[in-house]
Amino acid sequence: MGIEAYRKAAKDLIDWICDYYARVEKLPVRSEVEPGYLPPLMPRKAPDAPEGVEAVMSDIKSKILPGLTHWQSPNFFAFFPANSSFPAMLGDMLSGALSVMGFLWSGSPAATELETIVLDWLAKLLNLPSCFLAYGPDGNLGRGGGVIQGTASETVLVALLAAQARVMAERPAEDRQRLVCYSSNQAHSSIKKACMVAGTTHCRLILARPELDYALDPADLSAAIDKDIASGLIPFYLVGTIGSTSSCAVDPIADLAAIARKHSMWFHIDAAFAGVTAMLPEMQHYFAGLELADSFNTNAHKWLLTNFDCSCMWVQDAEPLKAALSLMPAFLRAKGNAYDFKDWQIPLGRRFRSLKLFFVLRMYGKHKLQQYLRHHIALGELFAGLVRKDNRFEIVTPPRFALTCFVLKGPLGNETAALVDAVNQSGRAFMISTELSGQTVARFAIGGAQTQQRHVRAAWQLICEAADGLLATARAET
Amino acid sequence: MGIEAYRKAAKDLIDWICDYYARVEKLPVRSEVEPGYLPPLMPRKAPDAPEGVEAVMSDIKSKILPGLTHWQSPNFFAFFPANSSFPAMLGDMLSGALSVMGFLWSGSPAATELETIVLDWLAKLLNLPSCFLAYGPDGNLGRGGGVIQGTASETVLVALLAAQARVMAERPAEDRQRLVCYSSNQAHSSIKKACMVAGTTHCRLILARPELDYALDPADLSAAIDKDIASGLIPFYLVGTIGSTSSCAVDPIADLAAIARKHSMWFHIDAAFAGVTAMLPEMQHYFAGLELADSFNTNAHKWLLTNFDCSCMWVQDAEPLKAALSLMPAFLRAKGNAYDFKDWQIPLGRRFRSLKLFFVLRMYGKHKLQQYLRHHIALGELFAGLVRKDNRFEIVTPPRFALTCFVLKGPLGNETAALVDAVNQSGRAFMISTELSGQTVARFAIGGAQTQQRHVRAAWQLICEAADGLLATARAET
């Protein structure tokens, strides 16, 4: 494909993308295909001779699109949002075109330096304590700073490995089997997975109780730690959550930090979804105590208009990270005002991912980004207010960060699951359910880049209609 | 940024990208900036108010470009290639625009199914044994298949974890500390890193000798295994390499496979760079014995025109992978003709990465892709021939897969390192050196998507001129 053919095909694709964004809200949000729908529609092997872009795009439209759940639909209220935005798409397109590798500073210096700069920018925007900044006031690199990981799961694992390297630095190898990791049982599943990958035998997921809105109780944590220490184990890694996956629960960060300090544990804060709200003055109370954390994470690819993958991680001190992940002895690592991001992550290769965040931060600017988050938070309050006023429903945990968890009360007890199914089958909105204290709970997560009040009101209407139908049937049955 | 503003900005960017590709060969290949060049050129924080795309692009041109090493330059002969192509860029642009998450089949069914189909296509193109295909002749999923990982490093780690899950399934937990991983010392550094991450204490990097062109000697491997078994250790994971990083050495796959079978070890083949040549009949001899491997990997993002990240991994049996990486007990996992790729990888989130490979396989087709690889291999032979005819140089290991490793012979003994520096400082070509048997060796790797004979000849000219200068100076000094 020559340059001119690409120019034409790419501009046609831009037009298609514009058209897609203009009509995505009209598409059924959730795909209703059955497993195995695609193989019968596709050839069994790649073609021998080249095909034109028209043929490929024709298959995209007729065969791929029906199998997609439209995460960019303004009617998508499932999981957490996976924001895209036009500025991020521009940055990512540029990154794809330049196709440089950023694993060594020397492999393409701008890739490393822009990432470091942009994460300093984001850290300041999020009011992170200055101990998380890479560049000091003198313009020189300090001990800490930011790095873009692929996902929060990788961040949780990388922080665990750093924690392990730090605690094991002066211990005999056999102590590795005595290390204990802690979080609430509402924390992300990636903590357990990180323990599986790293071979951390002891992973305590401490029950977070509804009385505390599913936040981890510091007293419970302390009790668990004391018990482990009494059994000869070594607490080494604590993950606090700001905005849990199920219900956006927020752990008491300052209290947890104090416990972590007391026991010399690495304290990681997983704020994958909600961390971006640290840029709002009215949300500061959730983030008090951050200066006592060793690492902090939020995903710009969730609620900050930056296409996947862009999981932003900051550390106060990168040395334990490098001790865990660098194959070079410390004296051979990049020196002076440079570092090699291969030593901060599990993969070797890495894309020029900071470009998309650079475009987002510059083309939105602080005020628009704050406005963007407040827009969704207000929509969340609107939605929660609608649920609260309707006595067929019950809100089970305080709505937060534009997420509302609620149940439909009915005689059969399974009405909530049925409600979520009915809403999703309509194709007009998509949400998921979760489990809290053994109960199935509907989970309405707002955060789509295009989501406006009318989409939330229409979804509520849909929920009410589905509830009417379900309750009528349930009453007839009982 | 509204749709029309994006349409205009994106089309302008396409024009810029076209222009970049037209002129990239004239840009200095390697950036010559100093560490810390960028922070003084950038504001200390993100702007408060939105900036226009022109302002951002202006900074890209004046501040970022000078800090880039141009991996897409046809004069780039360093590391291994990191191919981009216009079809892949189209697929990736589409993926960015759709921004769906593919971690669950149900999260966007087409993302999982297209990935599975496209990796079956690529497996067939590469003549992989049918045991690596996902879909059987009946169109149903079998036990194995392909998955796109981010990098070969992640693949090596994921395979290690699968190997561990398999061997540990019927052993007591304390045996984990007795597991031993093997590869040649020419294998990729990611093997050692995988052991660090997973906590595999025993990692044997067996010396590969120059007499065997740096391939692993099966006798040496067997001896190491026997010794470990005699010490009460448990061999569990063997990595064979087809195309090592330093010199493109190829391990004797069938022999290693037999040893792996004998000891019930997981046998992974890392063919990150050279694996794509399996599509060439004349290269089949390197791949004999593949049906005895448990997993195989090649990176489409190196030499197959597919932008990073696209590390293609196949397994004969995905169950051990899921046992290692799934948080769900087996009976709860996705059933029927579907699976969830979150259970095949370390991260949770995943991009719709198969789209770019889909565009590449269709828009090139088998014959053009074969022609593409043969083009570089022929250029490699041309270059090796030029080196061979010039008695100032010596080729130190058989040139293979378009990589030539050579030294400049001179009285000081440091001429090769100086040669590489001189070439790189010219900005007209970029190559790196490596170390083989303690000797610094120049490493000329061909594989740029735009690299033609004239670029190779010009680079050779440059090398010769640099050698002239260095040898004259060296003679004057001695």
TrEMBL record, chains A, B:
GO aspect biological process, one term: amino acid metabolic process
Provenance organism: Coccomyxa viridis
GO CC, alphabetical: cytoplasm
Sorted UniProt keywords: Decarboxylase, Lyase, Pyridoxal phosphate
Assigned protein family: Belongs to the group II decarboxylase family.
GO MF entries: carboxy-lyase activity; pyridoxal phosphate binding
UniProt-recorded name of the protein: Aromatic-L-amino-acid decarboxylase
N6-(pyridoxal phosphate)lysine PTM positions: K302
Coiled-coil regions listed: none
Transmembrane segments: none
Cofactor needs: pyridoxal 5'-phosphate
Superkingdom, natural source: Eukaryota
